[in-house]
Amino acid sequence: MSFSAVVVAAGEGLRAGPGEPKAWRLLGLRPLILWSVERLLAAGAEEVVVVVAQDRLALVDGALKGLKGWLAVLGGKTRSASVQAGLAALSCGPDQIVLVHDAARPFVTRLHIDGLLAAIARADGAVPALPVADTLKRGHVAIEATVSREGLWRAQTPQAFRLGRLMDAYGRWPKDEEPTDDASVVERDGGRVALAPGDPMLMKLTYPEDFRMAEQLVGSQRIVRTGFGIDAHRFGPGDAVMLGGVNIAHDKGLIGHSDADVGLHALTDALLGAIAEGDIGLHFPPSDDQWKGASSDQFLLYAVDLAQGKGARILSADLTLICERPKIGPHRDAMRARIADLLGLPMDRVSVKATTTEGMGFTGRAEGLVAQAIVTVETPA
After folding, report:
1. What's 347's DSSP letter?
2. Predicted confidence (pLDDT) per residue in 72-85, tens digit
3. 0.85 exceeded by the pTM?
4. Which residues are within 8 A (CB) of 118 and not within 5 positions of it... i.e. 6 or more apart?
5. I want to staple 318 with a disulfide (CB 3.0 to 4.6 A). Which of 95, 257, 261, 351 is the partner?
6. What is the topology classification, in CATH, of domain 3-206?
7. Exposed, middle or buried, 161 (CB in 10 Å: 0-12/13-18/19+)?
């Protein structure tokens, strides 16, 4: 069942303590906003609208670098205004199921979404919820009463609705009231909202201690994997070579089915190895004429898309070029910048090194060159 999503990230999150607005703080070295958007896209969202404050619009591209299928829009002064701005920006029709999610709940999974999609089939909306387990007390300075927890639930997000139904309900909501969640808007409008299985992992990060707990959970949920790649091409006629995504003038060219960029080929193999997806020849066979003369950029970007689709996050890349010439030093930083751009990494996580074989072997005789690469990724455990 297809679905779209709105991720609300326009609030200040003051209860989280001093510092950046909550959605922009780091969790596992990544902006909190990235977690939900990435997971919703990986679960199959056709589009994700991210609602942010005015001063954050220019920062969304950097926070979500490498992801495709999302759009950022300006939020309103209240959460409900932000939700409505996000709904209005969706390109889908009124019957499309839309998940409205708070960026402060980073651990949403496909399992949660499947539960919501199943529940909304028999209702106007669906909410993941947990039964209240603690004894409830009412009071201020002292306890005034014990409240029965029978039939009480803790509502979570994402919450699922058909787009037209939720927008109509918002249109009839009193302008002078602020709903506590989207389900209450549909409830007041006479809609039936079903309960879907909740999960303690859908915790909302509100206070500083929530972030500390989430950091511990992140460490237990992710593993680090490393892939190794190697490629070699021989020299032939030409006046330039492609290395690490950079065109370098040379008295020879490199012979290969594509543009023969050994650096990007080795990096592609390393990334594919880190996510256990075979090698470059499996995905781009040299027998296929469509790749003749192709830019190797697209091979590496393809591997990046595969990795992101599996929930992997690229951590670093290390490329070693083995050749007598051309000299790599003058082009090192240009290669690092290009590779960083392709992998969605800051430059300080990309290394490019060069060495020779002291005149030995085919590289020593300047008959060709070799590239070796290591790529490290973090994936779900």
Report:
1. G
2. 999 999 999 999 99
3. no
4. 196
5. 351
6. Spore Coat Polysaccharide Biosynthesis Protein SpsA; Chain A (3.90.550)
7. buried
